[in-house]
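Task: encode each sequence below as C-alpha cells.

Item 1
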Amino acid sequence: MTDEHGRVHKQRYELDIVIADGRIMLVEMKGHSDMDDIERFLECVGQYLHLEQPSQTVEKILVTFDVSGPAQDRAEAEGITIIMPDE
C-alpha cells in the first residue's frame, strides 16, 4: 500500500502490543538483537503508527538477552527502551 506521501507500506506487519493504564507499548522480544532486528522493529512501529494510531504516543520496548553495540546505540537513539537481564 502506498500512502499520500508516496511511502510504501507492507499491509502485513507483526508487533506485540501491550495496553495498560492507557499506555500503548509496542514490544519486540528477541534472544539476540542486531541492527537488522532494530531496523525491522522500527519499520513495524512506523507502519503501526501510520496505519493504526497516528496520533497516539507509544513506548517502544525491546526485551532481549543480548544486543550488539551498534544496534544498542541505534535503539537508544530511536527512543527504544532495552530490557535485559542483569549480568
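Item 2
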Amino acid sequence: MKILILNGPNLNLQGRRDTNIYGTKSFEEFLAELQEIYPEVEFTYFQSNVEGELINALHAADGVQQGVVFNAGGYTHTSVALRDAVSAISTPVVEVHISSILAREEFRHTSLLASVACGSIMGFGLDSYRLGVEALLMHK
C-alpha cells in the first residue's frame, strides 16, 4: 500500500515548537519509526508551509497513493481551498492532529476538512499519524 503523509504549516518545526503541546521528537525520527512498524507500506512524505503546494500534493496523490494522512496544521480551520482539494480527489484522506483541536483555543474547534475526510484523529501526539495509517489499512 502507498500512503502519503502530508504535513502543513509549521510542522517542519516538530520537536522544537511548543514542545509542551507537540513533544520533542522530530517528525523525521517518528517517520523512521512508522517505516519500521509498517514495512509493507510505501510511505511518501511531504511538508509545506505553502497552501498551494499542499493542494498540488493532494492532486498528485490522486490515483497514485492509496491513502493520505493529512495534518493541515492551521489551514485546517481556514482553508476552503484545501477542503475542496480533499473533496475533489478519490484517494481517501484521514485528517490528523497531534493535539486535540477541541481542547485548544476556540478558533481551532472547527475543521473545514472533517466533513470531506474519511475520518479524523486527534489528541494522541505523533501516534495520531500511526492511528491514521491504521485507519487507511482498514479502509482499503
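Check on item 2: The mean pLDDT is 93. The domain at 2-139 is CATH 3.40.50.9100 (Rossmann fold).
End of task.
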